[in-house]
Amino acid sequence: MPKDSAEFIAGCLTADQQKQYEADGFISGVRVFDSQTVAELRTAIEALEVTYSDGVGGSSLDQYFRVNGHVVIPLLSELASTPAILNAVQSILGRNLLAWSVELFIKEPGSTKTVSWHQDITYWGMGETNDEVTAWVALSDVSVEAGCMRFIPGSHTNGIVSHSDTHDDNNLLSRGQEIQDIDESVARHGPLQPGEMSLHHGRCFHASGPNRSEDRRIGLAIRYVTPEVRDGLEGRDYAMLVRGIDSTRGWINIAGPQEPFAAADLNLYQQIIRDQEATLTEGAEQDVSLYSA
What are phi and psi for residue 212, nearest 5 degrees? Predict the structure, then answer.
């Protein structure tokens, strides 16, 4: 059941939206930004691409966009605290929220890159938790033609299922990991207009196709967790408190950067990558990073 159900605040999900999320494991079409804000965000992201076209600290900008960008890029850190996003996520997870990662998924026009059928939390070291939600925000028109996400309704009620490592060059996932034998006839598309958001459960089966549109497909993915997710887990992991309190203290709390790519933040970034990859690569047959760049 939704948490803090008697204490809704403006912008939270409706009762019908919460019921749909509980039944299907996802919802789409939640408005979080107006058209002007989306345009400004896209301009800011594309300005970063120009400014850091040669990369930073020995890595390409794509690396930081795709993995833990909130550690070194203030814009991504700030977006994780957007009130309209947090209000919706609070309807599902409750008042105490941390951002575990913030990522940009950009598919260029005509790109053949895909994301295969998978469950997000398979390799994240969070176990079977229900206390992780991915907020996926469209910063361009994310139509069916542009390769919007597809979901299998109700698949979040399963446990973590077996994934096969394909290491497909066209797959944006680190191992090209995919769930076999998906019945695509029951899949639902989740197209989004610019400024709209979908939310999906960490065990919900989902995928996305190539971008056959004439514009870039720009999506912002923010992974939210509760303090309790790491209770009793081994290893080290990091998250940024964005609402409420973290009295459990299983996460190593980070504050977010004050300026782009500061030396101390770049050092922290590398430490986080090392600690997270120790979990991600467990059982892999070759070295992999969090995501394919």
Answer: -100, 10
User: Per residue in 154-213, pLDDT tens?
Assistant: 999 988 888 776 666 665 665 657 788 888 899 999 999 999 999 999 999 999 999 999
Tokens of 168: 């497909």
SS3 state of residue 77: helix
Q: Burial-class residue 124 by CB neighbours within 10 Å (0-12, 13-18, 19+).
A: buried
Q: What is the pLDDT of residues 220-262, one digit of tens each?
A: 999 999 999 998 888 889 999 999 999 998 999 999 999 999 9
CA 293 to CA 61: how far, in whole Å?
10
Domains, the chain, with CATH or none? 15-280 (2.60.120.620)
Q: What angle do CA 50, 108, 118 make, to 5 degrees?
A: 120
- Token pair in block for residue 80: 């994780």
Which of 265, 278, 261 shows the shortest CA–CA distance to 55? 261
Token pair of 106, please? Answer: 């950009």
DSSP 27-55: EEEEE-S-HHHHHHHHHHHHHHHHHTTT-
pLDDT at 1 over 90: no
Residue 204: the pLDDT is: 94
Structure-block tokens of residue 102? 């913030």
SS3 state at 238: strand
Distances (CA, A) of 261 to 51, 71, 162, 190, 291: 12, 9, 37, 34, 20
Instruction: Specify the DSSP class assigned to residue 241.
Output: E
